[in-house]
Amino acid sequence: MRNKKIPKAGSNIHKVSKKTYLKNNYQLYLMLILPLIHLILFKYRPMLGTVVAFKRFNIFAGIWDSEWIGLAHFKEAFSSADFWIALKNTLILNVGDIIFGFPVPIIMALFLYELNNKIIKKSTQLILYLPNFLSWVIIAGIVNQICSNNGLLNGVIKAFGGESVDFLTNPVIWRIVYWITGIWQSAGYGLIIYLAALTGTDPSLSEAAYIDGAGRMKRIWFITIPQIKGTITVMLIMQLGKVVSIGFDRPYMMSNTLVKDVSEVISTYVYNVGLQSARFDFATAVGLFQSVVGVILILIVNTMAKKFGEEGIL
Amino acid sequence: MSEVKSRSSRIFQIVVGAIFVIISLLTIIPILRVVSISLSSKTAILSGKVWIYPVQFTLEAYKKSFGNSNFVDSFLYSILLTGAYTGICMLMTIMAAYPLSKDGLKGRKIIMTLFVLTMYFDPGTIPNYLNVKSFGFIDTIWALIIPGALSAYNLIIMRTFFAGIDKSLYESAYIDGCTEFKALIKIAIPLAVPAIATLSLFYAVSRWNGISDVLYYINRSSLYTVQMMLKQMIDSVRISLEEGTNTQLIADNIKAASIVISMTPMLIAYPFIQRYFTKGIMLGAVKG
């Protein structure tokens, strides 16, 4: 009974003195201590570390006592051909992912949703989502087994009397292999997202259109798609916002020296220049450029989406 | 009229059904191919007889892989590492998510914003490396556990779940003099088992599959994860690609067996975790 008036942070009673508030909620703050220490030491401390991009990093002096040199590293990056190649490749690979990869799960979800056969519906989701759980190391190993000179694809081509194709060493074909592998790996994830969005749509609208004589394609185009437009926009914002940033594992594991000219992207460039050649300061500048442009892009795309009357992500 | 409609609908169902069966087959064929190679004899592979089913079935490649003590050691080490990482991550995630799920907690908004910002701004590979280095974690197992011990994305999912727990459940416990730590352990955690299972799997999958931090922070081969061992085998293929030769340092069936062994934990867990993951994605899709 004595405790009845003690308001906890989770309860509805708000007006209490500071002392009682702390007395009742100090345990919640105790719980937050470790996560906050982690947040500061491993998320925000590295953010301060980006000042290395404006310094001549001296490993003995450390980050703080190294000499300031302003924007010299950025100037060097912008006048270096390698940087522009890495940036161009990043954009090409990402834009290809959006053009070829983005519509695939949407189209599949729209048709799979119309399908009555429950077994095919379930097993398609189960199988398509599976590659999402494989690491890029494993996927690269699988791609080698499929696309190498004595791989499955060339086996099929040779069986039909064709000439073997250099899937992994021809730069143009390598890009296509990269994009198709991306679709193979991630289509199942998108499929599940869009199917869930479709379950949230109102079937009576589609039925009404059916009674009015609208064909299946017309119903999909004019009734169903407008209802999942919000989900499509959010997914597109996230992809467009990431168009300058690229994960490390996929391009790194899939590349080889023969396709370096098209496979070197910002993340692998930072790794090669920064960690392999130990140019920490310069590589930090390149990475920082990528992060800052990334944030600006997300803000722009998000604002645009809101202008078009869609809900953004921020 | 209705007959025409139902017939066209039946054709639609058959065609679309068939297309999805083909898509599913195309998706699974690469995996079947690797499994087949790993179970076929060397001579059958070299003569190009293996397509997507084993020819001259043999377990030789698996015997050789498991006979390689380095590979077995790194496999066991990876399992331990994944377990430890997942445990620490869940502890951190729950301890952060529970207080932040309380509406009246002062400072909640600011703390939440601080976490969310980390999702949009990445300091980059090198500042993270220098940070890990400054703690002396390079070439220790801590480099693979501590820096990634809390993901803002998973924190949001966990918090959303905790916030959905009926508040009246807490009220009566508080009246009985229950402390917050007790409320977390006795009320919140038992009710959040589905979310905890999902997030544990998110963390476990990311650790098991992770390669970049091993590459950045670990030089000692005794601390190589199974993915790193596999990467070195795949590098030998790259070398033969680059030299334009077909002579390979490691036989195809051994490589295939290693690939299969390293994806086995995922393949075994997959049917069980798939529905949890689906739920997890949905929770994550809800804005934080």
Instruction: Please indicate the percent range of residues of chain A in DSSP E strands (runs of 2 or more).
Output: under 5%
Strand order of the largest sheet of chain A: 1-2
Distance between the termini of chain B: 50 Å
- One letter per element, helices H and strands E, the order of chain B comes to HHHHHHHHHHHHH
CATH superfamily of the largest domain in chain B: MetI-like
Query: What would CATH call the architecture of the largest domain in chain B?
Result: Orthogonal Bundle
The biggest beta sheet of chain A is recorded as:
2 strands, antiparallel
**What is the number of helices of chain B?**
13
Which percent bin holds the helix content of chain A? over 70%
Number of strands of chain B: 0
Characteristics of this structure?
A: 314 residues; MetI-like fold; 2 domains; two-stranded antiparallel ribbon; globular; disordered N terminus; B: 288 residues; mainly alpha; 13 helices; 74% helix
Report on the structure:
- The complex is a heterodimer of chains A (314) and B (288).
- With 314 residues, chain A is mainly α.
- Chain A has two domains: 67 residues, no CATH class; 234 residues, MetI-like (MetI-like fold).
- Helices cover 70% and strands 1% of the residues of chain A.
- Chain A has a two-stranded antiparallel sheet with strand order 1-2.
- Chain B has 288 residues and is mainly α.
- Chain B is globular.
- Chain B has 13 helices and no strands.
- Chain B has two domains: 58 residues; 221 residues, MetI-like (MetI-like fold, Orthogonal Bundle), CATH 1.10.3720.
- At the A-B interface, α1, α5, α6, α7 and α8 of A face α1, α4, α5, α6 and α8 of B.
